[in-house]
Design goal:
Layout lengths: L10 E4 L6 E4 L5 E3 L16 H24 L8 E10 L5 E10 L5 H12 L3 H6 L5 E6 L1
Parallel strand pairs: 5-6
Antiparallel strand pairs: 1-2, 2-3, 4-5
Helix pairs in contact: 1-2
Length: 143
């Protein structure tokens, strides 16, 4: 499906990939990467692709919820949050895959409206669209 990209950014990874460095081409961010202990690495304070995915997905989904709000006429309450939990592990078909779960808090919103807003957001969020064919995103909604 063609996409008319209105914005692009670029990052370069170096070193060992998951145990190297990654930096944005515009110089605004650079991170040391560390393999988690659970994947056989030393662990520690460094970032990893799953942490970066969780940061991006949670922020993107909350932003997309604002667009879904305008379409559904369901107001996103003040204090709303999205927590993304991203996992990695071996796939039964071979290789590795990711898991994704979103915990969406929409204070004081009626439960039916909260679920409708979250479902509408899944159709709008670029992260949800990027992974919908390969990852079953679990959602939990708190009103």
């Amino acid at each position: 499906m063609p996409v008319d990209a209105k914005y692009q950014t670029q990052a370069t990874a170096s070193g060992g990939g998951r145990d190297g460095k990654t930096a944005l081409a515009d110089g605004t961010m650079a991170l040391q990467l560390t393999v988690p202990k659970e994947l056989g690495g030393p662990g520690g304070d460094g970032a990893n692709p799953e942490k970066l995915f969780a940061l991006g997905y949670s922020a993107c989904f909350l932003g997309a919820m604002r667009v879904a709000s305008a379409q559904t006429k369901i107001k996103v309450p003040d204090g709303s949050t999205v927590t993304a939990t991203i996992g990695i592990g071996p796939r039964s078909e071979g290789g590795f895959g990711i898991t994704a779960a979103l915990d969406v808090t929409l204070p004081s919103l009626p439960e039916a409206e909260a679920h409708k807003l979250v479902e509408a957001t899944h159709g709008i969020c670029p992260y949800s669209n990027a992974i919908k064919a390969s990852v079953d995103v679990k959602t939990t909604t708190h009103a």
